Amino acid sequence: MGLKEEFLRLLKEDEEFRMAVAGYLGLREVLEELRRLREDFNKFAKEQGARWEEANRRFSRLKEGLGALTEAVYTRYVWEDLGKVIRASGERVVRRVRNADFDGVEVDLLIETEGRIYVVEVKVRPRIDDVGALLAKAEVVGRKLGKLVVSVLAGSYIGREVEAYARGKGVLVYVY
């Protein structure tokens, strides 16, 4: 057996010899550097996670603010458009309330006339289940105030299916 074969046999079979060779080759330093790199990477990943969490919180606040602003603008548009229809029909508005609360049920805009209540739900991109939620809110308000309730859905991106469903349920639809 030659020197090369003997060397390879010792590397394979003799752990003490293998560790001594690794030490001479600087493997311990390489392993230490890999350990430090892993620690640095974990620290970096944790810091990035914290940054993403902060960015998500900021985005959530921005989304919330934008949603509130959109709701305020759309309720104003509905008030202007629906107010004209109400006045043209000879009705008189006796109360208008944004963010009205009825036993924990929030209504984006409530317009009360002498004979009716208009319950307005604002959604930028309403879905069919939003129509169901609007109808449930209208039912609560109608029971509480004892007047005929007209449900109104307002939004920007109201799909044909949602609009057809809402109109089929007797909901007035305003698209802005």
UniProtKB/TrEMBL annotation:
Q: Which UniProt keywords apply?
A: ATP-binding, Nucleotide-binding
Q: Which GO terms describe its molecular function?
A: ATP binding; metal ion binding
| Domain ATP-grasp: from-to ranges | 107-154
Give the superkingdom in one word.
Archaea
Its recorded name reads ATP-grasp domain-containing protein
Per the UniProt record, the source organism is: Pyrobaculum aerophilum
